[in-house]
Write a structure and sequence with these properties.
289 residues; alpha/beta; Arc Repressor Mutant, subunit A; D-Maltodextrin-Binding Protein, domain 2; 3 domains; 7-stranded mixed sheet; two-stranded antiparallel sheet; globular
C-alpha cells in the first residue's frame, strides 16, 4: 500500500474536497482521484460518499481512517528515527500553546539535555485545537493544552492551574472595574468563563488579542492593562514599567497534559513528563483535579 495514497485519503477526509486536498498536496485533482480509487480497489470498499455538496467518509472510510493515520505516523517516526545521529536512540515531540512557549521551552529542553542526552527533542507551538489534531494523527507524543476536548484518540490529564495577574502601565492603580485601555487576552474557555463572572456584562471587548507577547508589546507602547502570566511580566514589574492592579479579581488558566492513544507512552515520553513537572513553570504553579 502506497504511503502517498494514504496521505491523499487523509487530506480528502479532512477537507471534504478532492480539489482542496489536491491544493494541500500540491498535485492535480486527477492524481488525488486516482490515489483514492487505487485504495478503494485494494480494499474492495468505497471510502467516500460523493455528492454535489462534497465528499464524506463512508462507514468503511471511518473505520479505515484511524489505521491510515497510524500507518503514516509510524512511517514518519521511522523516517525520523533513521535520520537520527548514531548517538541518539529516539525522539520525543512536545506541543505547546503559543502563550506558553517562552515559559516552558528553554527550561524543558535544558532538562531533557541533562537527563536524557540520547533523546532528540522536538517542540512546536500552535493553537490547542491544532495541537489536538496533531496528537490525533499520532504526530506528537504529548502536548499541553488549554481546552479539554474529549476525543476518543486522546487521553487528557489535569496538568497545572497557573495564576494570572492584572497589571497596568499606570502606577498606583486600584481596581475599579473594566477600565479604558483594557486588553482581553484569549486564555481559553475556562479563563473566559472566569472573566465573564468577574466582569459581568463585558463579553465584548474593544481589543482582544490571542497572543500574550503581542498584547504585552501593545500595552507597553500604548498604555493599558491586561491579565498576564507571571513569567511574562515579572521583569517589567521589577523595573517599574508595569504595576499590579490592587484589588483585581484573581483569575487563572488551566492546562491539560494530553497523550495520543496512537503512540505508545514510551519510557522517553514518561521522562519528558517528569521534565515538565521539574521546571519552574510547573513547580511554581498548583495542580488541580
Amino acid at each position: 500500500m502506497n504511503i502517498e495514497h494514504l496521505r491523499a485519503f487523509i487530506e480528502v477526509a479532512a477537507s471534504g474536497s478532492f480539489h482542496k486536498a489536491a491544493e494541500r498536496l500540491h498535485i492535480t485533482q486527477s492524481s488525488v482521484s486516482a490515489r483514492i480509487k487505487a485504495l478503494e480497489e485494494r480494499l474492495n470498499r468505497p471510502l467516500f460518499s460523493r455528492s454535489r455538496h462534497g465528499v464524506t467518509l463512508t462507514s468503511g472510510g471511518n473505520l479505515f481512517y484511524r489505521h491510515a493515520v497510524s500507518v503514516i505516523s509510524a512511517w514518519e517516526r521511522a523516517q525520523q528515527d533513521v535520520a537520527l545521529p548514531t548517538d541518539m536512540r529516539s525522539t520525543v515531540s512536545l506541543g505547546l500553546p503559543m502563550n506558553h512557549w517562552g515559559s516552558i521551552t528553554a527550561d524543558w529542553v535544558e532538562w531533557m539535555e541533562q537527563h536524557q542526552p540520547r533523546v532528540a527533542t522536538q517542540v512546536q507551538s500552535d493553537y490547542s485545537i491544532l495541537l489536538m489534531n496533531e496528537l490525533r494523527e499520532g504526530l506528537l507524543d504529548l502536548a499541553i493544552l488549554y481546552e479539554p476536548h474529549h476525543w476518543p484518540d486522546v487521553i487528557l490529564e489535569p496538568f497545572l492551574e497557573e495564576p494570572l495577574q492584572l497589571v497596568s502601565t499606570q502606577a498606583d492603580t486600584v481596581f475599579a472595574g473594566h477600565g479604558e485601555g483594557y486588553v482581553y487576552i484569549s486564555w481559553g474557555r475556562s479563563f473566559s468563563e472566569q472573566h465573564n463572572d468577574a466582569f459581568p456584562g463585558t463579553r465584548r471587548h474593544r481589543l482582544s488579542i490571542t497572543q500574550e507577547t503581542i498584547a504585552l508589546e501593545y500595552i507597553l507602547k500604548h498604555g493599558g492593562s491586561a491579565y498576564f502570566s507571571q513569567f511574562m511580566v515579572k521583569e517589567h514589574l521589577a523595573d517599574g514599567r508595569l504595576h499590579t492592579v490592587a484589588g483585581a479579581p484573581e483569575l487563572s488558566v488551566r492546562t491539560y497534559l494530553a497523550f495520543s492513544t496512537l503512540r505508545e507512552r514510551s519510557p522517553e515520553t514518561l521522562k519528558a513528563v517528569e521534565g515538565l513537572q521539574s521546571i519552574p513553570f510547573y513547580t511554581q504553579g498548583k495542580s488541580f483535579s
